[in-house]
Each structure stands twice: as structure tokens, then as C-alpha cells.
């Protein structure tokens, strides 16, 4: 019974540390993935023109 209470007390006292151990790697992975996706989208947008210029030119002509 004392061991169970000791484990519960340790979990409660170390709750902040456990939270950091879980969230910090997730945040790092999210930021890294976000940067890679943005970079890939920029490269693909530069290599493969999608006709955005045509759409903006036609809008300017209408105005």
C-alpha cells in the first residue's frame, strides 16, 4: 500500500516534467515538418507555374 502511494505521489510531483518530456519533442517535430512543407511548396510553386499570373492579369483588366 505504501508503494502505491509513493508511486502516486511521484506521478503528481513529476507531472510537469512528464508534460515537458511529451510536448517538447512533438513541438520540435511539428515545427520541422511545417518548415519542410513550406519549403517544398515554394520550390514546387517556382518550378511548376500554375497560371496565377493569368488570373491576376485578367482581374486587373476587368477593374
Brief digest:
The protein is mainly α and 63 residues long. The chain contains three helices and no strands. Helix content is 89%, strand content 0%.
Describe the structure.
It is rod-shaped, with a radius of gyration of 26 Å. The chain contains 3 helices and no strands. It is an all-alpha fold and 63 residues long. The longest helix has 33 residues, at 15-47. The model has no long low-confidence stretch (mean pLDDT 78).
List keywords for this structure.
rod-shaped, mainly alpha, 63 residues, 3 helices, single chain
Topology (elements, then pairings):
Layout: H1 2-13, H2 15-47, H3 52-62
Q: Termini separation (Å)?
A: 79 Å
Spatial extent as radius of gyration: 26 Å
From the spread of the alpha carbons, the general shape counts as rod-shaped
User: In which range does the helix fraction lie?
Assistant: over 70%
Strand content: under 5%
Order of helices and strands: HHH
Number of strands: 0
Say what oligomer this is.
single chain
Poorly predicted runs: none
Structural class: mainly alpha
Please give the count of helices. Answer: 3
Q: Return the average pLDDT rounded to an integer.
A: 78
Amino acid at each position: 500500500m505504501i508503494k502505491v502511494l509513493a508511486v502516486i505521489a511521484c506521478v503528481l510531483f513529476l507531472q510537469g516534467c512528464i508534460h515537458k518530456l511529451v510536448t517538447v519533442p512533438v513541438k520540435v517535430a511539428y515545427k520541422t515538418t511545417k518548415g519542410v512543407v513550406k519549403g517544398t511548396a515554394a520550390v514546387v510553386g517556382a518550378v511548376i507555374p500554375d497560371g496565377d499570373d493569368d488570373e491576376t492579369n485578367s482581374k486587373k483588366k476587368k477593374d
